Amino acid sequence: MLYPLIAGVLFGLYFSLVGIGLNLVFGVMRIVNLAHGDFLMLGAFVAFGIYTAAGLDPLVGVPIAFALFCVAGLLLYWILVPRLQRARDPEMLSFILFFGFSQVIEALTTIVFGTSERSIPSRELANSLSGVRAAIFGGEATNGPFQIFGLSFPASWVVAATVSVIAIGCVYLYLYRTRLGTLTRAVMSRREEAIATGINVDRVSAAAFGIGLGLAAVAGVFAPFMFGSFTPAFGIDATVTSFVVVVLGSLGNPLGTALGGVVYGVSYMLVQTYLSSWADLLPYVLLIAILLLRPSGLLGRRVRVA
Amino acid sequence: MIGKASAALAAMMMLATQAYAADAPSEIKIGTLYASSGRYASISMPVHSAIKLWVDQKNAEGGVYVKAFDKKIPIKLVAYDDQSNTATAATLYNQLVTQDKVDLLVADSGSVLTAPAVTIARDHKMFLFDQTGTGASFFSKDNPYIALMADPVSTIWPKPVADFITHDGPGLGIKKVALLYSTNEFTGTQANAVRKFIKESGAPIEIVYDQGVPTETTNYTVIINNIQAKQPDAVIHLGYAPNDIAFLRNVQDVGVKFKMLFCIYPGLETELLEKNVGAKGLQHVFTYVPPQELEYPVNFGMKMADFRKAWDEKYKDGKIEFGFNSVAGYTTALVIEKTLSVATSLDQMELRKAVFSLSGNLKTLDGTFALDEMGGQIGELTPLGQLELNEHGHIKFVSIYPHETATGKPVYPRP
Amino acid sequence: MPDTLRHYLFIAVPLLVVLAVLPSVYNNHLLLFNFVIFFILAQGVNIIYGFTGYLPFGYVGFFGAGAYGFALMVMHLNSPAPVAVLAGGLVAVVLGLILTPLLRLAGAYFSIANLAAALAVLHLIANPALESITKGPYGVALNGTFNPTWAYAGAVLILALTLGIVVYLKNSSFGLALQAVREDSFSASMSGVNVVKMRTIAWLASALVAGLAGGVFAWYVSVFYPDNVFSADFSIFAIVFALFGGVATICGPLIGVIILYGIYNLIGFTTPQYFQLIYGLLIMGLVLFLPAGLVSLATRRGWNVP
User: Fold this and answer.
1) What homologous superfamily does CATH list for B159-290+383-405?
2) Residue ranges in chain B modelled with pLDDT below 70
3) B with C: how many residue pairs have Cβ under 8 Å apart?
4) For residue A238, what is the enclosing H or E element?
């Protein structure tokens, strides 16, 4: 019983990282980024490229992917979004737009890289830090399984969970301690009033979009280790799960996403143990249950009722 | 008088043979599908590339010998991309039959993409050359329009594994077995077969863990922990390549060592698994021994080494994996070639008769071709083997069971 | 002549006649059948999105439910095919009733919840635990009902029914009330429109139509896996076709299907790898430059396109 719980927390924290980017984008712009999972996939390729081409620790991919996709996000925002906001039903149309975009990304990636599975050996993640780890936790510097309460867990999970916690902490600091972040929160709660008070909504949204994509790519860097292997087509499933995590934890609240991720992770591990063939039903059941019972999410912020 | 009569007779015969030869089509159209993208691309492209290799080879020789017209006729391969989508595949199979009017219909690779063809072929009364679609529901007594070319049916495929466990297992100390499978037709049916074979054997083997997980599962950490808790003497994992990759990696990640671990795809897609799991992760793993690791006696078509050479020459960039599936495609091609050389016409039922006549007699680089009465492949069984590291640290196969084809003894329990 | 009759006679009937006659001159019957199915599904999306503003991203849930309703009737009750198709429609309506609480949600929340619901139904049906009822993941192989000609006729009949519903909605006060609800539900309810009841009726009508389509699809193909009849492609294509042509019109979805599905079948053959790319770009272009659909090109000039 303890094993699935701890595994669930680690796994869930990773999913919080997957969801946090989506949270920002949806919370701020009401835009449904159906291509979210594809940016995850691109982040995975960045990590793969760093490992195979440069021979470096994939962990290096974290800052690189973040910077790269932040900039990409800003560019994309200015190209795509202003037109969208002028339409009659921007929220719905953004669904379609980003779906089309996700197809484009997937097609281009497939054309360039082909469809076969790729992966990175698990020991490579944070290999450069294995000396540090041995110093703190004891044992040899081989980046082997991590022991928690005497149970073995993959080292890559612990690294991913740690980075996730740091990332979510950073987002929290951004939103609650910086000026731009406060403006972002203003736009998230009342868009029209924010415009009326002279806030440059476009700039705030662009920043949120860039950060959102950057975070997705960072999550993608860890994807090869969490999922075993990746192909250009695996983005779609990740997108749906991200939504589950975000909605579970309440929109716009980074701590909520952390909680949502952990709830999802633990539930998944428990279901895998006791009802293994039903495991794939879990995210959808959770989503529908939350939307119908407590649509504002576990940490209750906003509710959209028709 | 006799001279005139015999001259007339000769003239008539000449006219007859000319008319006969005039009936011959200018090319034999073979219709098939392939998936260049999507979930099944990795099993489809090697199969398709092998067919193309054979077509090009034969056309370079002037065509394939067709007994029905007693001459060599070039082949035209009509192939469309279904992108791993079954609805697209259904439309395209229909197109091949009704618009392109192909002479022979060959299915795409894998049960899922073969399924639409089964009904369409049956509806249009065309014989389906089923390459690797092993779904048991395809083969029934009332459908004569199908035969499985290159893979054993799922209900019989795992027999070597089950037999090893029930015959040799007790001697090695195997009493408890864990069975983990992905819930889809390919592996689910094999799991049922394993269970059945073990139970029917009467051997003192107990299945202590028996779980199905969704095919999309990519995370086995907790499952591995649960299996470990039951302390099995042997673990059988039946899943597709992504499942095997994730499972084997997770086993390495948590540092668990099962006494015996069987997975399907280290045998069927060795290069892919070695690339993603690493040679160390595959060491001592049990799997199927693919035909390219054994030298089967061949009475038709290229031997394995020659086929490998031809493949490497044609597909230099290495983007498409050479392995089990490319052999499957070439085997299908050989069956087609031999069928055309014995069938007395291109009528579909006649083709069927010709195909079935090869059962038990055709020995290719894939093994002996053998069909049951419903068209299911019961030959070409892959023996059970174990993976070890050779001097260079790369994977090599040791065939374990059946004993007739064994090249070594099993390493059990895993050190 | 009242508008309803006029529209039906001059738009719906010619199309139906053409579809009824084509199989005798064009051999690829499966292609024609697929066209009819997409005509039905696109109009189904039109009913729910065009008239009520809910985007059913999980529309295929009803389609699959209808297909399995058909399959269950044939497998377990040996019922004749036409009855089983009706049963399929009924199953979809029941599913729609169960999912009515989702209508409480608005905008993107509804769409995602709808998607989750469809996926949940898929994974429920495909679970091996239900193998004795639905054959689980091993797929359905129906014997004895295989009759593509009659199935095609059934599909054309269902299309006739669907077009009837859409023509009615376009020309009746009921349809007008629905559109009012879509624009501004508060004002509509203040004008005496029973918002909840109207939405539910439209929702169930679109469910019925998709369920019947699913039933007749199962009749036609006779062999299918859960993934085939719950494929997201059905929802996506139906939505895109409807949007491309223009929703809340009769002709829009029809035009959308003819053009886009036609293109799909043409280039799907010759440029396979690049097809996804082209399609994705097309979708993006549609949203950015022609959000109200193709029909809007005409209505902008003041022409009245029904």
Assistant:
1) Response regulator (3.40.50.2300)
2) 1-22
3) 88
4) helix A235-249
Q: Is residue A303 part of a domain?
A: no
State which residue of chain A sits closest to B83, comparing Cα positions: A115
* Closest chain C residue to A110, measured at CA: C273
Is residue A173 in some structural domain? no
Under 8 Å between Cβ of B277 and B252: yes
Q: How far apart, in Å, do the first and last CA atoms of chain A sit?
A: 41
- What is the per-residue pLDDT for C173? 84
Express each pLDDT in A251-286 by its tens digit.
Answer: 777 888 899 999 999 999 999 888 888 888 888 888
- Partners of B364 in the beta sheet? B367
CB A167 within 8 A of CB A173: no
Banded pLDDT at A115 (limits 50, 70, 90): low
| Number of Cα atoms under 13 Å in the Cβ half of residue C3 | 12
Q: Indicate the CATH number for domain B23-153+295-368.
A: 3.40.50.2300
Domain count, chain A: 1
Give B-chain residues touching C268 at CB under 8 angstroms: 81, 83, 88
Answer yes or no: do B319 and A117 touch at CB < 8 A.
no
CA distance B217 to chain A (A): 8
Q: Which residue's structure tokens are 């050389």?
A: B341
Residue A302 lies in a domain: no
The two tokens of residue A283 are 């995210």
Give the type of residue at B337. E
Chain B interface, Cβ < 8 Å to A: 36-39, 41-42, 183, 211-214, 216-219, 221-223, 225-226, 241-242, 245-247, 249-250, 252-256, 272, 275-278, 319, 321
Q: Which residues contact A9 (CB under 8 A, 6 or more apart)?
A: A161, A262, A265, A266
| Closest CA relative to residue C57, chosen from A23, A236, A29, A38 | A236
- CA B320 from chain centre, in angstroms, equals 16
Please indicate whether, in this complex, the C-beta atoms of B94 and C29 are within 8 angstroms of each other.
yes
Kindly list the partner chains of chain B, i.e. chains with 3 or more CB atom pairs below 8 Å. Answer: A, C
Sequence letter at residue C66:
G
Residue A304 in any domain: the answer is no
Chain A partners of C110 at a C-beta cutoff of 8 Å? Answer: 306
C-alpha distance from residue B409 to each of A192, B177, B284, B413 (Å): 75, 20, 12, 12
The residue ranges of DSSP E strands in B276-326, in sequence order, are 286-288
Tell me if the pTM is above 0.80: yes
Give the range of the structural domain holding residue A287, as residue numbers without chain letter: 2-115+124-136+189-293
Q: What are the pLDDT digits (tens) for A160-200?
A: 899 999 999 998 898 888 988 888 888 887 778 888 888 88
Residue C142 pLDDT > 60, yes or no? Answer: yes
Q: What is the nearest CA distance from A4 to chain B, expressed in angstroms?
A: 6
**Inter-chain residue contact B219 with A144, CB threshold 8 Å:** no
DSSP label at residue B383: P
Q: C280, A107: Cβ pair inside 8 Å?
A: yes
Q: A121 vs B278: CB contact, 8 Å cut-off?
A: yes
Distance, C-alpha B272 to centroid of its chain: 17
Task: Provide the H-helix boundaries in C172-231.
Answer: 173-183, 185-190, 195-221, 226-229
- Could C107 and A99 be called an inter-chain contact, meaning their C-beta atoms sit closer than 8 Å? no
**Is residue B150 within 8 Å of residue B132, measured between CB atoms?**
yes
Contact B221, B254 (CB under 8 A): yes
Beta pairing partners, B105: B31, B128
Per-residue pLDDT of A38-83, as tens digits, reads 999 999 999 888 888 888 888 888 899 999 999 999 999 888 877 7
| CB within 8 Å of B40: residues ≥ 6 apart | B84, B108, B109, B110, B112, B113
- Residues in chain A with CB shorter than 8 Å from the CB of B252 are 122
Tell me the C-alpha distance between B390 and B201, whole Å.
35
Cβ pair B253:A156 closer than 8 A: yes
For the question of an ipTM over 0.95, the answer is no
Does residue A110 belong to the interface with chain C, where contact is any CB pair within 8 Å? yes
